[in-house]
UniProtKB/TrEMBL annotation:
<dbReference type="Pfam" id="PF01729">
    <property type="entry name" value="QRPTase_C"/>
</dbReference>
<dbReference type="InterPro" id="IPR027277">
    <property type="entry name" value="NadC/ModD"/>
</dbReference>
<dbReference type="Pfam" id="PF02749">
    <property type="entry name" value="QRPTase_N"/>
</dbReference>
<keyword id="KW-0662">Pyridine nucleotide biosynthesis</keyword>
<dbReference type="InterPro" id="IPR002638">
    <property type="entry name" value="Quinolinate_PRibosylTrfase_C"/>
</dbReference>
<dbReference type="InterPro" id="IPR022412">
    <property type="entry name" value="Quinolinate_PRibosylTrfase_N"/>
</dbReference>
<comment type="similarity">
    <text>Belongs to the NadC/ModD family.</text>
</comment>
<comment type="function">
    <text>Involved in the catabolism of quinolinic acid (QA).</text>
</comment>
<keyword id="KW-0808">Transferase</keyword>
<comment type="pathway">
    <text>Cofactor biosynthesis; NAD(+) biosynthesis; nicotinate D-ribonucleotide from quinolinate: step 1/1.</text>
</comment>
<keyword id="KW-0328">Glycosyltransferase</keyword>
<dbReference type="InterPro" id="IPR036068">
    <property type="entry name" value="Nicotinate_pribotase-like_C"/>
</dbReference>
<dbReference type="InterPro" id="IPR013785">
    <property type="entry name" value="Aldolase_TIM"/>
</dbReference>
<feature type="domain" description="Quinolinate phosphoribosyl transferase C-terminal">
    <location>
        <begin position="113"/>
        <end position="278"/>
    </location>
</feature>
<dbReference type="InterPro" id="IPR037128">
    <property type="entry name" value="Quinolinate_PRibosylTase_N_sf"/>
</dbReference>
<feature type="domain" description="Quinolinate phosphoribosyl transferase N-terminal">
    <location>
        <begin position="26"/>
        <end position="111"/>
    </location>
</feature>
<protein>
    <recommendedName>
        <fullName>nicotinate-nucleotide diphosphorylase (carboxylating)</fullName>
        <ecNumber>2.4.2.19</ecNumber>
    </recommendedName>
</protein>
Length: 281
């Protein structure tokens, strides 16, 4: 799993620090803590989960003060249990305390995304299917959230409107049908661009197969209907299931034989993983 480059994450971390520090900085810490004080602390998991976002946390501290050192004890993608030390932080006490909330906000949120992804990935591990994300991401955080999905054992769907075609129901309605929509796309985009189409019924799927599309999004189909759809496709397209999928329902859908299961809540509603900073000295 490749770490996101600093050029991607630094503007996001800087924006979060600026939001928190406001016009006058950390007036509480500056009043309470002597500038000469030095601290050592540990980032500790309060509950089980999968770690993601350590680079963001480290950058939050080092942007406030480059003298802060962060020693990563378990890398992104690691499963941790309650009480596990994830990293150690040492440096000037003022900087350690000032950047704490921003660092933990990134780490807790992204670890939550990774943990949610892992619950689906583990549930379908015995099948051929992979869990993937969607574009239902928090504005501005898409790259970070999609990175966290990979940390949790998932894969990425398209990153934006410009890197792949996904013809959805409203596109089909405006175009006048699946065949017309796919035809217009093929006449417009280059040969390197993949084309996926959303369908709700087997009749729509039959029409789509004849167009030679690259992938099909099978929306809100139960396991038995999905199995029929997979049989119809017969390997001619990548098959993707979507629609209010939970850890409880993912297994049955994956066992229907689809290639991908896309889950929006992994990013738009991820539950934060509880992590904290424990002062050591």
């Amino acid at each position: 799993m490749r770490q996101l480059p600093r050029i991607v994450i630094e503007p996001l971390v800087r924006a979060a620090l600026l939001e928190d520090l406001g016009r006058a900085g950390d007036i509480t810490t500056d009043a309470v803590v002597d500038p000469a004080d030095h601290s050592e602390a540990a980032i500790v998991a309060r509950e089980p989960g999968v770690v993601a976002g350590l680079a963001c946390a480290e950058l939050a501290w080092t942007l406030v003060d480059p003298r802060v050192a962060v020693q990563v004890l378990v890398p992104d993608g690691s499963h941790v249990e309650p009480g596990a030390a994830i990293a150690r932080v040492s440096g000037p006490s003022r900087a350690v305390l000032t950047a704490e909330r921003v660092a933990l906000n990134f780490l807790g949120h992204l670890s939550g995304v990774a943990t949610g992804t892992a619950t689906i990935a583990d549930a379908i591990a015995h099948t051929r299917a992979q869990v993937c994300d969607t574009r239902k991401t928090i504005p501005g955080l898409r790259a970070l959230q999609k990175y966290a999905v990979v940390a949790g054992g998932g894969s990425n769907h398209r990153f934006g409107l410009d890197d792949a075609v996904l013809i959805k129901d409203n596109h089909i309605a405006v175009a006048g049908g699946i065949t017309a929509a796919v035809g217009r796309v093929r006449a417009s985009v280059g040969h390197m661009v993949k084309v996926e189409v959303e369908v709700d019924t087997l009749d729509q799927l039959r029409e789509l197969i004849a167009t030679g599309a690259d992938a099909v999004l099978l929306d809100n189909m139960g396991p038995s209907l999905l199995a029929e759809a997979v049989t119809l496709v017969d390997g001619r397209m990548v098959t993707e299931a979507s629609g209010r999928i939970t850890p409880a329902t993912a297994t049955g859908l994956a066992e229907a034989g689809v290639d991908l299961i896309s889950v929006g809540w992994l990013t738009h509603s991820a539950r934060v993983l509880d992590v904290g900073l424990d002062h050591l000295s």
